[in-house]
């Protein structure tokens, strides 16, 4: 068995793609996953599975599409994946508030030669591999919208979590 954090993209934000966490737990349990828990109301779950991460993500995406009639992208990440994202955060030493530090995961590769979202705010946005880190000292709503930039310039969706949520997910993943 492997433990995973399952991140749903864009649910329960601004009234879009409403997914009740009780329904999500029920659906994940119905797929045969164990130790299922949800965290917060923004599309975070943890579970144990006998499948690789890519299979978990694919099965959950298919079940969500069947249940809600819309595409909801999903990432399944191990504790090691999340710890690597946390350990690699290049801005964590300057940030003083976990709710204002973001990690965004990409659902694809940027096109060659594409502009970098770091150009929006080079001191507060860093791109490393399939992750984008952002520090928002004035609050998220007063910072560049990196996800929108990436969707438009790269045609790649993202899902992000703040530092506090990242730490909760790391601690909640089943062993």
Automatic annotation (TrEMBL):
InterPro entries xrefs: DUF1697 (IPR012545)
Name recorded for this polypeptide: DUF1697 domain-containing protein
Protein's organism: Pseudonocardia halophobica
């Amino acid at each position: 068995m492997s433990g995973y954090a399952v991140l749903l993209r864009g649910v329960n934000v601004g009234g879009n793609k409403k997914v009740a966490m009780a329904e999500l737990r029920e659906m994940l349990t119905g797929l045969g996953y164990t130790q299922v828990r949800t965290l917060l109301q923004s599309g975070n779950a943890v579970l144990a599975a006998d499948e690789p991460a890519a299979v978990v993500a694919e099965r959950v995406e298919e079940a969500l599409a069947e249940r809600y009639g819309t595409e909801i992208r999903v990432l399944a990440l191990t504790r090691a994946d999340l710890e690597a994202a946390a350990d690699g955060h290049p801005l964590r030493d300057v940030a003083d508030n976990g709710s204002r530090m973001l990690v965004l995961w990409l659902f694809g590769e940027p096109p060659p030669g594409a502009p970098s979202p770091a150009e929006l705010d080079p001191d507060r946005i860093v791109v490393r591999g399939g992750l984008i880190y952002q520090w928002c000292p004035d609050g998220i709503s007063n910072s560049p919208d990196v996800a929108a930039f990436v969707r438009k310039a790269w045609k790649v969706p993202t899902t992000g979590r703040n530092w506090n949520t990242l730490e909760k997910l790391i601690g909640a993943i089943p062993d």
